[in-house]
Amino acid sequence: MRITKYGHACVRLEKHGRAIVIDPGVMTPEPDASAEVEAVLVTHEHFDHFDPDRLKALRADVYTCAGVARHLSGLGERVRVVHDGDRFRVAGFQLSVVGDKHHLSHPDVPPVGNVGFLVDEAVLHPGDALTTVRAPTLLLPGQAPWLTVPDMIDYLRRMAPHRA
């Protein structure tokens, strides 16, 4: 599996000539991040992870939480709402959905929905959550207004991945 990190939270995964992309949001300036992907996975509806205009311009199916799907009604059956515990195959990848809520950002604002994606039991993209599951490679959130350094270190220790 080839993993390519793009702007902000966006990651492209390729295997056997097929590709998926996770979280190509507004802060992902590279147009090639989503080029010729078979599926787009979106963890949650914040702009840095989600760009509705980019998704409308693609032909790929979108797998995401209900909060994002609400903004994509015009895409019809291309949008697949997924929940914690769901498993599916797309583009030759086995995906498991983990978690359901964004990490607490502010005590007065309830967290939005957030689904993480475990790819081939090997790579975890948690979105903006600190969901703990076994994964050799963790795509660790490293810069966010909701994330403190002690929380990030504690999460990294709990996960104990081979790579982060």
Describe the structure.
The chain has 164 residues and is an alpha/beta fold. It has a single domain (2-159), classed as Ribonuclease Z/Hydroxyacylglutathione hydrolase-like (Metallo-beta-lactamase, Chain A, 4-Layer Sandwich). Helix content is 13%, strand content 27%. The protein is built from three helices and eleven strands. It has a six-stranded mixed β-sheet with strand order 1-2-3-4-5-6. It has a five-stranded mixed β-sheet with strand order 7-8-9-10-11, with no helix packed on it. A hairpin with a 3-residue loop joins strand 9 and strand 10. The chain starts with a strand and ends in a 5-residue tail after the last helix. The model has no long low-confidence stretch (mean pLDDT 94).
The total tally of domains equals 1
The quaternary state of the protein chains shown equals single chain
The run of helices and strands is: EEEEHEHEEEEEEH
Secondary structure tally, helices: 3
Second rung of CATH, namely the architecture = 4-Layer Sandwich
- Proportion in β-strands: 25-35%
Q: What overall geometry do the principal axes of the alpha carbons give?
A: globular
- CATH class wording: Alpha Beta
**How is the largest sheet built, in terms of strand order?**
1-2-3-4-5-6
Calculate Rg over CA atoms: 15 Å
Poorly predicted regions = none
CATH superfamily: Ribonuclease Z/Hydroxyacylglutathione hydrolase-like
Q: In total, how many beta strands?
A: 11
Largest sheet: 6 strands, mixed
Average per-residue pLDDT, rounded, comes to 94
Helix content: 10-25%
What name does CATH use for the topology?
A: Metallo-beta-lactamase, Chain A
Query: What is the terminal-to-terminal distance?
Result: 16 Å
The computed structural class is alpha/beta
